Amino acid sequence: MLRKTVAHENGHPVILVDSITKIEPGDDGAIIVSASHGGQSSGEFALAVPLAAVLFNDAGIGKEEAGVAALPMLDGRGTPACAVSHDSGRIGDAVDMWEHGTISRVNKEAANKGARTGMAVQEAVRTLAG
Q1: Residue 69 has what pLDDT?
Q2: Coil, strand, or helix at residue 49?
Q3: What pLDDT, on a 0 to 100 scale, did the predictor assign at position 113?
Q4: How many domains does the chain have?
Q5: Residue 34 and residue 94 in contact, taking contact as beta carbons nearer than 8 Å
Q6: Which end of the chain has the least Cβ crowding within 10 Å, N or C?
Q7: 22, 8, 15, 5: which is closest to 54 by C-alpha?
C-alpha cells in the first residue's frame, strides 16, 4: 500500500496514501492526498492528526452524501478538505488521483483558501498550501 511524499508546497509535505489509515502522528502539518473514500470513518482518521489539508476520493458521493461526510467533519476542526471525483481518479490509487484527479467537492475551509470544484488535484494542493 503506497505512502509517498511527492512534493513540498510552502513548507508542507505532500504525502500520497492509498489508504487514510496510513497517515502517521508525524504527519502534523502535511497535505494528504488519500485514495480512501471521504466517509465518516476516513474523517475520523484524518481528525487524529492536525493536517494542513486532506483530499479524499468522493467514491461516487453515495446515499445521503456518505462518500464525502468527512468534509464537514473537518470543517469543524478548521481543516481544509476536498473530494476528488471517482470519475477522474481511481479509488484506492493515490498516484492516479494525483496525476489525473479533479476536485468534485470542497469544504468551507478549503473554499476559503481558494479551492474550488473542477480544479486539478495538483492545482488544489498548491492553492491549499497557500
Answers
A1: 98
A2: coil
A3: 98
A4: 1
A5: yes
A6: N
A7: 15
E strand or H helix at 32, and its extent? strand 31-37
Identify whether the C-beta of residue 79 lies closer than 8 Å to the C-beta of residue 108.
no
For the beta sheet containing 103-106, the strands, ordered from the edge strand earlier in sequence to the opposite edge, are: 3-9, 12-17, 31-37, 53-57, 81-84, 103-106
Amino acid at 117: T
* pLDDT confidence of residue 117: 98
Write down the residue that cell numbers 476516513 correspond to.
42
pTM over 0.90: yes
- Nearest 5 degrees, angle CA 107-CA 127-CA 52? 65
pLDDT value of residue 42: 98
What the block records as the C-alpha cell of 13 is: 509535505
Length of the chain as a residue count: 130
d(CA 20, CA 45): 7
Q: Which domain holds residue 25?
A: 3-129
* pLDDT mean values, one per 10 residues, the chain (130 residues): 96 98 96 98 97 98 97 97 98 98 98 98 97
